[in-house]
User: Which sequence fits this backbone?
């Protein structure tokens, strides 16, 4: 009853979420009919770069978002192309996006712009964004459709190859063979790079022609001798079938001797446990190990206790987790996928190994252990409305936004001091979330999923804290941003909380899905809109939480 009275005190006829504020013409109606704030064009660009437009929300189609974002990008390129490119580079290099595709697409648009200075600046930054062979092929594919090949593009692509040291060059052409209909052979024949030394010349001509060039320079032999290992490494990788046929033992030996990646192994041999054991021997990258756990299980690698132990030790190794800069969601998704016993498309099935499953859960928690507590008072509110179950995380169609928000709540519980953190769940009403820091991830999921789902009222966390006089420095709301239900808009509820409590509290809106709306008032420096779930989010929350406003 107290809450009802409180709401009546501040009801003025224009405060409910389905009615626009007459003094805020910048509000717009979202897809659920509630009035929220429209992100400015630069905010929309950030959302595209981070989340892209592939995932559906409960209300919006991916196609609609793609059209909107393409139009917005072109407008911003006309306005300030250099700023667009700088934002692309910043987000891409920081690893804030689950995929690099949107950044590559925007960079290609900039490299195809009518303004020569914008084109030049974009091409200057290609290597900063297109860091792998796959990225390069994607960029070339976009450019080929948008602008075609010209002198400046040829020079940029040539430098992508020639500026690399020999080991890096060999690794890129060996690991990333083709994508989007392009191969290194296709690209080299278009770009015509001028090699800086004979070793580069040897690699380029071998790629382009399918055979090694004649040694016709006086110092060529010495150069090749100095590069012997990398040359052999490349030659063996490209001619594995010719050299070894299907001899598993010889191929396994070559993998260990020359540190060969999984991508060069003939597909049929990836069904051989001994091949995977060799790949583990050369210290398979952490992310590659995560991607291939199901495959290794399906071919019986973990039936070998030694191999299983090696993988478990690597998965739970603190330095390996820290050094890999692994995105926590990647570990979470790897665990969910592995525990399902089948691949995303159902084409591969395996018997779940309990040791691997437990190691993944341990790794998930470990990945958040490198952040210091903020020492601020937090109220974390999880949107448990029905749309959260229907919304998915970009590129992760089998994981709901509700699951991700629950997992993030657990990381906050483990990171912050117990007296400084309160976890709530809300839809059209609000309750204390029935979870604690000692629960397993599965227990948390089970608790959250059984909470009653309803409409969305993102103002409830601030209303609750005001009504119960709870001191809060930072409100963090995990939502799909489709708020519409309730009598007070979220930004006004925050203003009321500040006035009643005398605390200059902040609001962080963590929108998990790709819409172009935010509940945060863009005019309020104490409100922050974060899009997506990545390794940068806890740091962003900490930095904003501790920043004075």
Assistant:
């Amino acid at each position: 009853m107290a809450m009802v009275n409180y709401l009546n005190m501040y009801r003025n006829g224009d405060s409910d979420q389905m009615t626009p504020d007459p003094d805020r013409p910048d509000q717009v109606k979202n897809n659920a009919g509630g009035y929220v704030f429209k992100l400015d064009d630069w905010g929309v660009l950030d959302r595209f770069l981070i989340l892209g437009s592939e995932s559906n929300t409960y209300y919006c189609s991916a196609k609609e978002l793609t059209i909107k974002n393409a139009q917005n990008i072109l407008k911003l390129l006309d306005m300030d192309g250099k700023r667009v490119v700088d934002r692309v580079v910043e987000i891409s290099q920081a690893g804030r996006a689950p995929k690099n595709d949107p950044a590559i697409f925007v960079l290609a648009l900039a490299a195809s712009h009518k303004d020569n200075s914008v084109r030049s600046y974009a091409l200057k930054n290609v290597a900063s964004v297109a860091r792998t062979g796959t990225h390069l092929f994607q960029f070339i594919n976009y450019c080929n459709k948008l602008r075609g090949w010209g002198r400046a593009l040829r020079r940029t692509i040539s430098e992508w190859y020639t500026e690399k040291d020999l080991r890096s060059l060999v690794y890129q052409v060996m690991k990333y063979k083709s994508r989007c209909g392009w191969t290194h052979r296709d690209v080299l024949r278009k770009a015509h790079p001028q090699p800086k030394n004979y070793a580069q010349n040897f690699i380029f001509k071998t790629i382009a022609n399918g055979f090694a060039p004649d040694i016709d320079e006086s110092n060529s032999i010495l150069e090749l001798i100095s590069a012997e290992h990398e040359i052999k490494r490349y030659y063996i990788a490209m001619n594995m079938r010719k050299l070894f046929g299907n001899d598993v033992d010889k191929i396994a030996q070559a993998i260990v001797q020359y540190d060969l990646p999984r991508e060069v192994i003939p597909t049929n041999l990836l069904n051989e446990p001994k091949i995977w054991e060799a790949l583990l021997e050369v210290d398979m990258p952490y992310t590659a190990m995560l991607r291939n756990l199901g495959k290794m299980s399906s071919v019986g690698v973990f039936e070998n206790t030694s191999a299983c132990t090696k993988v478990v030790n690597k998965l739970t190794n603190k330095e390996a987790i820290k050094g890999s800069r692994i995105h926590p969601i990647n570990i979470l998704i790897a665990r969910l996928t592995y525990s399902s016993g089948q691949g995303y498309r159902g084409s591969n099935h395996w018997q779940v190994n309990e040791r691997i499953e437990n190691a993944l859960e341990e790794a998930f928690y470990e990945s958040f252990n490198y952040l210091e507590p903020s020492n601020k008072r937090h109220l974390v509110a999880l949107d448990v409305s029905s749309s959260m179950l229907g919304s998915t995380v970009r590129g992760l169609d089998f994981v709901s936004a509700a699951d991700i928000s629950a997992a993030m709540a657990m990381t906050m519980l483990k990171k912050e001091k117990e007296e400084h953190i309160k976890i709530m769940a809300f839809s059209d009403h609000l309750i204390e979330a029935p979870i604690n820091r000692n629960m397993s991830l599965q227990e948390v999921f089970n608790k959250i999923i059984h909470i009653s789902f309803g409409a969305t009222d993102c103002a409830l966390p601030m209303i609750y804290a005001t009504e119960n006089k709870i001191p809060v420095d930072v409100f963090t709301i995990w939502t799909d941003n489709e708020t519409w239900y309730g009598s007070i808009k979220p930004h006004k509820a925050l203003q009321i909380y500040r006035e009643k409590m005398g605390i200059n509290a902040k609001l962080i809106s963590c929108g998990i899905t790709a819409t172009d709306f935010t509940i945060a008032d863009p005019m309020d420096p104490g409100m922050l809109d974060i899009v997506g779930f990545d390794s940068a989010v806890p740091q962003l929350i900490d930095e904003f939480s501790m920043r004075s406003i």
User: Anything to note?
Assistant: The chain has three domains: 2-41+373-546, 43-279, 283-370. The radius of gyration is 27 Å. The CA atoms of residues 385 and 414 lie 25 Å apart. DSSP finds 28 helices and 13 strands in the chain.
